[in-house]
Amino acid sequence: MSKQMLHLYHINDLHSHLEQWPKIVAFLKDRQRLHDENDETFIRFDIGDHADRFHPITEGTSGKGNVQLMNEAYLLNATIGNNEGITFSKDQLDHLYDEANFQVLVANLKEKDGCFPKWAKPYEIHALANGLKVGVIGVTAPYKAYYEQLGWNIQDPYEAIETAIGKIRSQVDILILLSHLGLEADEQISVEMKEIDIILGAHTHHVLPNGLHTNDTTIGQAGKFGVYIGHMKIVWDEKQRRIEHVKADCIDLQEYGSDEESEKLLLRLTEQANKNLLEVVTVLDQPLDLEWFGDSAFTSILAETIREWCDSEISMVNAGLLLEPLKEGPVTKGDLHRVCPHPINPCKIMLKGEYLKELIHHAMTKELESLEIKGLGFRGKVMGRMVFDGVEIVGEELEDGEYHVQKITVNGEPIAPEKVYSIGAIDMFTFGRLLPSVHYAEEKIYYLPEMLRDVLAWKLKTFER
């Protein structure tokens, strides 16, 4: 027989939307039976951001519950996304894959001494049952400031890919890249590194219904949250020793049935996680009320907490970060995770007074207050009012419905245009164009690995009676 059939299935950016997982497992089991009947080789990959700490199972098991679920899929390899790489501490990531029955590949992540982590390899070569030799390389997005502060050495992914290509291309028939870099990067790689046959992508959540075919490379990406699973059917010409054809598609799993064993595992993991999250952090002698578009005790405490944690002159946080008020009585880790689930860290922004003034004016607009945010680590619904600590803002709401700032003082003094102020804030404000004035920051200092709920726990412990 001169033709071989190889089927690839890839999952990306599940972000702990675990309600989809039993459907994914059921689908993969069905496909396993189908390909076995047709004597076709079948391999599976995860391209990162499987774990997201917004979910109680991920939070309550430090991501190890996700790995147990991934084991059900019998993956050949996985790479990490930024959610695995920079929302877990170094120690947590070092032990995240202790029980994995698949090999994690990350060619551009190393220890400070230049060695690869004990749980990761840059690439792997697989001799498949049909005689094909497949090489797989993994890379992740290089969030340099974060990885370095967490104790990692993150490298340029392009250089890491080129190094790996040089070591394995001559040894394999098909070369696959697991890329948590985003579609734009994948397209660039497909043009510049023609040695790669298949790129399975992630990070930017694109749905590529038929893949992208550039030069002799095929790129696949299957959206987010497990709504789709990616599939590629590769026809290999034995005589010519080359890929004859690749057909890519994304399969919608919304209406697919669930695997019963997978659902049972999810229930067990839920019980385990909930038990771990029952740890009491503090006991409140009065409730902490919450308003997204007005003043409230809980948002004031959050702003005060960020100012203290960052040791800054002032602080600013958006009220939408807190999803629910806290009741009087015991407050558990689970409570804090429920009210503040975001994988968001505190940060300090050093900004000249002229830009701080501009920032405050923008932050007080109704447009920003009512903005519905997607991504940037935010797992809530709406931005909400910007809440400040250490700064006095005087103004009034006029007929246009806007709050017009008339006077701003810090420590009783008007803002000095050339003075650099330290602002305790959240890392979300430093990404994208949410607050354009932050672009002019003299310095940005990130506080890791603690997330907002960890910092809140630290503060609320002082409330114990």
Notes on the structure:
The structure is a single chain. With 465 residues, this protein is of the alpha/beta class. It has 2 domains: 3-273, Purple Acid Phosphatase, chain A, domain 2, CATH 3.60.21; 279-463, Alpha-Beta Complex (5'-nucleotidase,  domain 2). Helix content is 29%, strand content 28%. It has helices at residues 21-37, 56-60, 64-72, 82-86, 90-96, 144-150, 157-168, 183-192, 260-276, 297-310, 333-339, 353-363, 366-369, 452-460; strands at 3-11, 41-46, 77-78, 103-105, 109-110, 120-121, 123-127, 133-140, 153-154, 174-180, 198-201, 212-214, 217-220, 228-237, 242-252, 280-284, 314-318, 329-332, 346-352, 386-389, 391-397, 403-410, 413-414, 420-426, 443-446. A hairpin with a 2-residue loop joins β22 and β23. α1 (21-37) packs antiparallel against α9, α10 (297-310) crosses α14 and α11 crosses α14. The longest helix is centred in the first third of the chain and has 17 residues, at 21-37. The N and C termini lie far apart (78 Å). The model has no long low-confidence stretch (mean pLDDT 95).
Give the CATH H-level superfamily of the largest domain. Metallo-dependent phosphatases
Helix content: 25-40%
Number of helices: 14
Number of individual domains? 2
**Oligomerization state of this entry?**
single chain
Fill in the CATH topology of the largest domain. Purple Acid Phosphatase, chain A, domain 2
**Beta fraction of the residues?**
25-35%
What structural class should be given to the helix and strand makeup?
alpha/beta
Query: Could you give the count of β-strands?
Result: 25
Major sheet: arrangement of strands: 6-4-3-2-1-14-15
